[in-house]
């Protein structure tokens, strides 16, 4: 009886240990949403709906005018780069400023990103997946 109980407990513990090792890592966003896998290499990268021109237009109409008038698509005298985590649903789950210009400009860009519409999610083999998206904004001053 003791032997049977020992083997039963050992079997349950070994199954629990194997299942704990194979559990995928999860990213839980403070804004809500979960990504079980964040893909770095994708077949089709995530994008802003309508493309880069629409993204710049969105920033021009959303940001404070004192920042938006200095926003330029080609001149790179000062560049803010923000890394976004886009879910498989197209929601921006997380954002991090990679290259900073000034605290007030960085904050204005982050506020505008909070108002982003639903993005086009990345795809791997035709399946929508979570991935990173880099936003690079160039300012004249």
Show unreliable segments: 16-24
Report the average pLDDT across residues. Answer: 80
Q: Give a short account of the largest sheet.
A: 6 strands, mixed
Number of domains: 1
Relative helix content: 25-40%
Q: Approximately how much beta-strand content do the residues carry?
A: 25-35%
Structural class label: alpha+beta
Number of separate helices: 4
| Structural Rg | 22 Å
Instruction: Tell me, briefly, the overall form.
Output: elongated
List SSEs in N-to-C order. Answer: HEEEHHEEEHEE
- The end-to-end span amounts to 80 Å
Report the count of strand segments: 8
Report on this model:
By secondary structure, the protein is an alpha+beta fold. It has one domain. Helix content is 33%, strand content 29%. The chain has helices at 2-21, 52-62, 65-68, 103-114, and strands spanning 27-28, 34-35, 38-39, 71-72, 78-86, 92-99, 122-124, 127-139. The strands form 2 sheets. Strands 3, 4, 5, 6, 7 and 8 form a 6-stranded mixed sheet that branches. A two-stranded antiparallel ribbon has the order 1-2. A hairpin with a 5-residue loop joins strand 1 and strand 2. It starts with a helix and ends with a strand. Residues 16-24 have low confidence and may be disordered.
């Amino acid at each position: 009886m003791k032997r049977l109980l020992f083997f039963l407990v050992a079997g349950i513990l070994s199954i629990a240990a194997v299942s704990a090792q194979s559990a995928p890592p999860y990213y839980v966003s403070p804004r809500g949403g979960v990504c079980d896998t964040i893909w770095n290499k994708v077949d089709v990268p995530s994008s802003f709906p309508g493309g880069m021109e629409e993204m710049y237009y969105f920033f021009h109409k959303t940001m404070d005018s004192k920042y938006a008038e200095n926003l330029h698509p080609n001149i790179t005298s000062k560049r803010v780069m923000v890394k976004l985590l886009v879910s498989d649903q197209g929601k921006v789950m997380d954002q991090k400023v990679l290259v900073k210009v000034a605290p007030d400009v960085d904050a204005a860009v982050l506020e505008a990103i909070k108002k982003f519409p639903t993005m086009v999610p990345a795809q791997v083999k035709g399946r929508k997946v979570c991935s990173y998206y880099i936003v690079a904004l160039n300012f004249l001053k």
